[in-house]
Every structure is written in C-alpha cells, then in structure tokens.
C-alpha cells in the first residue's frame, strides 16, 4: 500500500481522481483511512494510505466498453 501526503483543501473525490483517475474510487481511500473519514475537506500534510486499485473486469464496464 502506498501513501499520499495531502495538500490543504484536498477532498476525497479529488484525491481519488488524482491517484486513480476515477473519483468514484474515493470509497477505497475512505475505507483505508477511517481516522480521517469524517473530514470533507482535508488538512494539508496528512499521510493517507492508498490501497491498490482493484482490477476492473469486463463485467464492471458498460456494454460499449466491453471487448467483443
């Protein structure tokens, strides 16, 4: 698991987008950092745990993005 140091004003969805390219994965960050989960806007210099992004299977994709 890697780590990310926050910048004053970071939000969970913005950090998820920055790290994963998908703001919907902010729940991964929230689950890995329960001690900070009650904050909406993060303070600067917090060290967050960043779990590995789960692999996306074709069943997770919308029909137009699936192969074949």
Topology (SSEs and partners):
Blueprint: E1 2-5, H1 12-20, H2 26-32, E2 47-50
Antiparallel strand pairs: 1-2
What does this structure look like?
By secondary structure, this protein is an alpha+beta fold. It has one domain. Helix 1 crosses helix 2. The radius of gyration is 14 Å and the shape is elongated. 10% of the residues are buried. The mean pLDDT is 92. Pfam families: Phage_tail_X. This is Phage tail protein. InterPro entries: GpX-like.
In a few lines, what is going on in this structure?
The chain is built from two helices and two strands; from the N terminus they run βααβ.
Oligomer: single chain
Termini Cα gap: 34 Å
Largest sheet: 2 strands, antiparallel
Number of discrete helical segments: 2
Give me the count of strands.
2
Mean pLDDT: 92
Summarize the amount of helix as a percent range: 10-25%
Low-confidence stretches are none
What percent strand?
Answer: 5-15%
**What radius of gyration results from the CA coordinates?**
14 Å
Structural class: alpha+beta
Shape: elongated
Which sequence of SSEs, written as H and E, runs from N to C? EHHE
Number of domains: 1
Biggest sheet strand order reads: 1-2
Question: Which tags fit this structure?
Answer:
GpX-like, single chain, elongated, alpha+beta, Phage tail protein, 2 strands
């Amino acid at each position: 698991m890697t780590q990310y140091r926050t910048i004053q004003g970071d939000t969970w969805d913005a950090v998820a987008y920055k790290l994963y390219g998908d703001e919907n994965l902010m729940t991964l960050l929230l689950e890995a950092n329960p001690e900070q989960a009650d904050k909406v806007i993060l303070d600067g210099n917090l060290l967050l745990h960043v779990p590995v992004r789960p692999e996306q299977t074709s069943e997770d994709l919308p029909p137009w993005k699936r192969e074949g």
